[in-house]
């Protein structure tokens, strides 16, 4: 039966590109955040408080790469409120947050009377270099968002480009979201740890081995967070 699903999905994708599916389903993301803000993240109140705490410490794995007060961090697909902490070792690194839906999120924040510590700017993950020059950041971070993109492979390349040599791209995502969600809504891609190599897949497209693709440009290290999320750390200019 799996091969029947793959064929039908491929035929559907021929007429509905990842970009068109993404455009069509974006409103579901706005709905999610509207409810999340209204309920103060009732299912995860600690997350809500953390995002609005100006003294929240920056957590691993990001914290180990924050080595000075002039560290610059880019949070990609940040949503209305960046998940990153704001303080590390007594100093406050510069954090820039971007998201394709930033304008809609600004309306939601106003609706719910919330003032963000870091205002999210409007920018697609696939188009970072249109806003930022190459090697602008020490850390480029994305959590639970690139698997919702129309082109996560391009988004990763954009994140890699805007990071300095010696800097790091950090990706934190739930494995196999596309398959687990039945490829519904924005969930069109799978991120996977395959024998310590990072793969991106979708039924209608060839699997991309990100670890191999960046083997000459970065050290790519995979681990698993306590909640089961896949952590990918891509240290630029430190190929094995």
Helix tally equals 7
Write the CATH architecture name: 3-Layer(aba) Sandwich
Helix content: 25-40%
Distance between the termini: 40 Å
DSSP strand count: 10
Q: Which overall shape is indicated by the principal axes computed on the Cα atoms?
A: globular
Mean pLDDT: 92
Name of the CATH class: Alpha Beta
Question: Would you mind describing this structure in some detail?
Answer:
With 240 residues, the protein is of the alpha/beta class. It has one domain (2-53, 69-236): Rossmann fold (3-Layer(aba) Sandwich). Helices cover 29% and strands 26% of the residues. The protein has seven helices and ten strands. The strands form two sheets. Strands 3-2-1-4-5-10-9 form a seven-stranded mixed beta sheet. A three-stranded antiparallel beta sheet has the order 6-7-8. The N and C termini lie far apart (40 Å). Residues 1-15 have low confidence and may be disordered.
Explain briefly what this protein structure is.
With 240 residues, the protein is an alpha/beta fold.
Topology:
Elements: H1 2-15, H2 18-38, H3 45-51, E1 72-76, E2 94-99, H4 102-111, E3 120-122, E4 137-143, H5 152-161, E5 163-173, H6 177-180, E6 190-194, E7 197-202, E8 205-209, H7 210-213, E9 218-224, E10 230-236
Parallel strand pairs: 1-2, 1-4, 2-3, 4-5
Antiparallel strand pairs: 5-10, 6-7, 7-8, 9-10
């Amino acid at each position: 039966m799996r091969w029947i699903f793959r064929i039908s999905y491929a035929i559907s994708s021929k007429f509905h590109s990842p970009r068109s599916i993404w455009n069509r389903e974006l409103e579901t993301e706005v709905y999610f955040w509207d409810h999340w803000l209204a309920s103060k993240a009732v299912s995860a109140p600690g997350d809500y408080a953390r995002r609005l705490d100006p003294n929240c410490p920056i957590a691993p794995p990001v914290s180990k790469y924050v080595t000075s007060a002039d560290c610059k961090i880019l949070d990609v697909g940040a949503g209305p409120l960046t998940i990153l902490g704001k303080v590390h070792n007594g100093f406050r690194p510069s954090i820039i947050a971007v998201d394709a839906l930033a304008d809609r999120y600004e309306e939601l924040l106003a609706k719910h009377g919330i003032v963000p510590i870091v205002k999210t700017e409007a920018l697609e993950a696939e188009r970072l270099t249109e806003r930022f020059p190459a090697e602008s950041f020490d850390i480029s971070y994305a959590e639970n968002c690139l698997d919702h993109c129309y082109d996560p492979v391009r988004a990763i390349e954009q994140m890699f480009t805007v990071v300095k040599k010696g800097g790091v791209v950090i990706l934190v995502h739930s494995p196999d979201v596309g398959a687990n969600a039945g490829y519904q809504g924005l969930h069109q891609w799978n991120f996977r740890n395959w024998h310590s190599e990072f793969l991106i897949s979708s039924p209608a497209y060839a699997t991309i081995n990100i670890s191999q693709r960046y083997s000459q440009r970065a050290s790519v290290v995979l681990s698993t967070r306590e909640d089961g999320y896949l952590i990918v750390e891509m240290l630029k200019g430190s190929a094995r």
